[in-house]
Amino acid sequence: MPSDTRREVGRRIAAARRARRMTQPELAAAAHLSLSMLRKVEQGSRVPGDGTLGALATALGVDASRLIEDPIRTGGRVRAVLPALSAAIAAYDMSVDTLSRPLIALEQEAAQAEAYRLGARYARLATVVTPLVTEAIAAVHGAPGGPDRRRAARLLVSAARSADAVAYKFGARDLSARLIEVMRWAAPKAEDPLLLATVGYVRTETFFTARAYRAGLRALEDTIDQSPDAVCLRSTASLGALHMRAAVIAGRAGDADAADTHLRDAERLAGSVREGVYGGTAFGPASVRVHRVSVAVSLGGDHSGSALHVSEAWRAPEELPAERRSGYHIELARAQLWAGRADHAFESLQEARRIAPQHTREHPWARETALTLRRLRRADAEALTSFAKWIGAI
Fold first, then answer.
1. Given CA atoms 282, 291, 371, 342 in this order, what sign does their dihedral have?
2. What is the tens place of the pLDDT at every residue in 198-229?
3. What is the DSSP string of 11-44?
């Protein structure tokens, strides 16, 4: 490992440790390393082996890849794949490519891509989505009908959703909208009403982008009305996720009553399921609680107290996907800033960075909050300035 790379890894380990408010002796003990070894690793004079890196990552509560990957360089690598991804869906409704792998192999890769998406591991996700989407399109066109066609359609919806996460999070909003159209084209071919509900959930991104919140709320409520009743675990989670999404966009529309109604419906449905990922979307009691904070922040500064009340003496559990936990801390930081709790807001941003650095770095609210905090607290500017530079706020 080159010396520059060693130093970068060491700096990331030190930054993650400080974000967790751990001393070097505490981290060394938690990772079962000598203090001397940890100091050398953080200084960049010692190369951490896979075992050491894994032990440090476990002690810090992060994926080992986050200690190796540079989020800034990751952004460049992710954006570099977007033109090829755009080309891959240019003729999605035509038979252009041939299928080179069996469906089972593609389904396994789509499941891995989904895990990358939920974990906010965008660099890894970006390496697989273009060939995956290309072959999924070929699979839909190549399937004669029946079960294989339905499987291929489900595969394409999953692949396009993972690809959309890359496009949407990195600002390629036109590409994101086109990927959602691919999902809308493929979903009916799966003959699965719950898959249509998933597409309705993801489609909301286009309304967020356009700030067409009332139209987005109507579209989601139409999807809710057309969705199957909550008669099994999957249908319950699907309907609950739609209500969570509707609550957030109602908040953006300034409709507090509609937001509260949808949150109550989501809470009722969450009461009969365990927190988990259903159909590619996390749902359960913890997810609904996270969305209560999101709704309060969406409604504006006057509702910051509600967001703080929801988060009081509560920590987002580890079983929530990293992307959702990171988003929770970003939105909580916004509410804390509004409430005049600058120290807490900065701590929340640091926690968001620890959980999912690339998601945090690409989130406009995280960038805006970091910039505001730096302006407010120039007397304690060193850490804030470093964070603001990292996130691209200055």
1. negative
2. 999 999 999 999 999 999 999 999 999 999 99
3. HHHHHHHHHTT--HHHHHHHHT--HHHHHHHHHT
Give the DSSP per-residue string, 103-154.
HHHHHHHHHHHHHHHHTT-HHHHHHHHHHHHHHHHHHHHH--SHHHHHHHHH
The mean pLDDT of 356-381, rounded to a whole number, is 85
How many C-beta atoms lie closer than 10 Å to residue 138's C-beta? Answer: 20
Residue the block writes with tokens 């030190």: 14
Chain centroid to Cα 39, Å, comes to: 33
> Six-digit token pair at 172?
């390629």
pLDDT in tens, 187-202: 999 999 999 999 999 9
Provide the angle, in degrees to the nearest 10, between the axes of the packed helices 233-252 and 193-210. 10
Q: Hunting for tokens 């999924």 — which residue is that?
A: 136
Termini Cα distance of the chain: 31
pTM of the model: 0.83
- CA distances in angstroms from 18 to 22, 34, 60, 338, 353, listed in the order given: 6, 18, 10, 25, 12
Q: How far apart are alpha carbons 130 and 391 in whole angstroms?
A: 27
Dihedral angle, C-alpha 346, 350, 351, 357, nearest 10 ° = 140
- Which of 150, 247, 164, 152 is closest to 199 using CA atoms? 164
DSSP single-letter state for residue 281: E
**Sign of the CA dihedral running 149, 152, 154, 156:** negative
- Tokens for 278? 């259903």
Residues, the chain, total? 394
State how far the Cα of 214 lies from the Cα of 197, in Å rounded to an integer: 19
